[in-house]
Each structure stands twice: as structure tokens, then as C-alpha cells.
Amino acid sequence: ADDVASHVVATLSETLNLSFAGVHLLDVGGHPGVIATAPGKRADVAKTVQMAVEVASTDGQNGVAPVAKVGNLDVTCVRLVSGGAEVGMLCLGPKESGLGLSQRDINLVTDVATHLAMGLDNARLLQMVRRNLAELETSASRLRDGQRQLRELNHRLLMAEEQERRRLAADLHDEPLQRIMMLMRHMEGCPGTRGASNAKCRSFAEEAATALRRACVDFHPPLLEDLGLEAALDWLVSNTNKSSSLDARIEIARDVSQVKLSSRAQIALYRVVQEALNNAVRHSAAASVLVSLSVRDHSITASVRDDGRGFQMPESLANLSIDGHMGLIGMRERIGSIGGRIKIRTAPGQGTEVTAVVKYESKAASHTAAETVEVVRR
Q1: d(Cα 372, Cα 147) in Å, to the nearest integer?
Q2: Which of 17, 64, 192, 291 is the most exposed place for a label (fewest CB within 10 A)?
Q3: CA angle 209-159-219, nearest 5°?
Q4: 238 backbone dihedrals φ, ψ, rounded to 5°
Q5: Closest by alpha carbon to 291, among 283, 279, 282?
Q6: C-beta of residue 318 within 8 angstroms of C-beta of residue 362
Q7: Highest mean pLDDT among 108-112, 217-221, 224-228, 318-322
Q8: Cα–Cα distance measured from residue 169 to residue 216, given in angstroms and rounded to the nearest whole number
């Protein structure tokens, strides 16, 4: 706005041979003020323009170009109107010759003032848009920083959860499970403890030991660290078959063995498959479930598909918590923490398929189509 006004007053001053000229706006950073003068950067000119505006605004002159008396100077003040509202004034001093402005001069100045008002208003709007864009960019930057911090916090929480799972598994194995095993050995060695009552007690102890072993593995599967994701998922599917009526199968593409996954990615994929299998057993009323592990486009995909009752999928994954699907929310958080993505396909009566995809580092230089032979285990 300042540049536009400065150019106009300089041009008018030169064209009409004026002693001075200036532009006064009603709103300059929230306050009225002079934004341009000719000759430029003259404090006396700016003060004269300011006084002329005050006189023209208070002496009751309502014409297009009222003349304000400032000392012994006649200053012509042309209102700047844009969109029906006055935005300021264009103030012109007498000519260098001492003569005032002719009607032809005033007509010219009035036309210039009309375009100047529009230009200043557009410049003001543009400045407002730029300011709003800058504020939006600042807000977006803060939001990105907040999201990044939230992801980092979520990652730390997930790692802390895994560490706590590992500690609990070790504690359960070292204390309660060992005590139960000692109790069973003690029962075997005690005279007079045979019979139906002892058999029943031993059965209870064996069930407790089995439950504790299962809990230890659920908390922290040792196969995942020792033999990798394939073996851990194979055991998980096998254990699901043994502990439930579900017909669980697993299909692993051969080239999965060529994939190098970080421990974080392996844990995340394992937990997603584990949660999906638990959901299939507890909630879906499914008869069968298929777990698959495949490689495509530098990504590894873990999928769990059941033939259960399914459910009505909300429009956004963020709404899953509202519907009580906290396990699915946990899957999304785990996969998101390693830069992966998760997709859930379901509908009432059509089963549920959970697919998790993460990037990987290849162990081999290349793969061929012949290497993607599936290994099916039941």
C-alpha cells in the first residue's frame, strides 16, 4: 500500500507541478496516519497533510474535494472511497506557481483517487491475506511439531510397554511358574497324597502352569528375538489352533526370508497379528482365519482375514475408539509409529481383514517372481 500511494503522489506532484502531496489512511496498523508524501520523507509535509485531513473532516465540507485551510495554505482533500466506504484522503497542496487547482485538475485527481482507493483497498486485503497465511503457516508448523512430538511420545510409550511386557514375562517365569513346578514335584514326592484328590490338585497345578506359560509368551514371545517374525507368527497361529475352535492357517511367501526388518517393525507386525487373531477368537464368531505374510514394492504386508460376523466400519479410523474398538486403535498406533500404514476392511456379515504394511531393507540384491512361492502351514 505504501509503494502504491508513494508512486501516485509522486506522479501527481510532478504532473501538476504541486508544492506537495500526501495520502492519509483511516487505518494504518489499527490507527489513522499518513503513508506517503511528495516530496518524500518530509516531516513538515506529513504534518501539513495530517492537519488538512483534520480540518476537512471537521469543518462540515461534504464535497468530493473539500479545501482545507492550513495556515496560509489551501489544501485540496479528495476522499478515497472503496466499496462505498471512505478509506482515507488524497491531499494536494497548491501548485509551485501559487495557483490553486483548476476544475480540470480536480477531475483528473478525482479519477486518480478512485483508482487509488481501489488499489489501496486491494493492497490492504492482500496484506491481510498474507498475514493470515503467515499465521496459518505458523499454526501448521506448530501442529506439525506437536504431531512429531506426539509420535515420539507414542513410540517411547510403546517401547516402554514392550519393556514392561518383557519384565512381567520374566517375573512370571521366575517366581509364580517356578513355584507351581516345585509344588507339583513336591506333590509327587509326598507319601499318602495319591488318589482322586491329588490328581485333581495336580490337574489344577498343570492348568495354572500352562496358563502362566501362555501369559509369558503373550507378554514377550522369545521366538521373535531368537528366530524372527516368520517363526513367531507360525507359533502364534499354531497356538491359536490349539487353544480355540478356530481353524487358523498361515501363508508365508518365500521371499519374506530375504527381507530385513528392524526389531521395532517385527514387534509391531507381531502385535498387530496377535491382536487381530484375538479379535477373531473372542468377538468375530469366525470359523476360520488366514494369516499371510508377503512382499511387494519394497514393503512387507501382514494380513489377517477371518470369515466372522464383521462390523460396521466408521468413516474414519479415529472414530474406532468411540465404537469401542480400542484394539484396532492400538494397531494403528503401533504401525504408525514405524512409518507404516494399516487398512481394515469389514462389513456386517462379511468378515474382517486387517492389513499392515511397512517398508523394509532387502538382504538380497534383487528378487525374481519365481522366488515368491507361498509356504502354507496349518
Answers
A1: 38
A2: 192
A3: 10
A4: -60, -40
A5: 279
A6: no
A7: 108-112
A8: 4
> Are the C-beta atoms of residues 180 and 208 closer than 8 Å to each other?
yes
Render 47-83 in DSSP notation, one character per residue: HHHHHHHHHHHHS---SSS-EEEETTEEEEEEEEEET
Compute CA 326 distance to the chain's CA centroid, rounded to the nearest angstrom: 20
Question: Which residue carries 509391531 as its cell?
Answer: 268
Helices (H), the chain: 2-15, 43-58, 103-174, 176-189, 196-219, 222-226, 229-243, 263-282, 326-337
Question: Cell numbers of 274, please?
Answer: 496377535
Helix axes 176-189, 103-174, angle to 10 degrees: 20
Cα–Cα dist 219/172, whole Å: 10
Question: Whole-prediction pTM value?
Answer: 0.53
Sign of torsion over alpha carbons 295, 298, 304, 309? negative
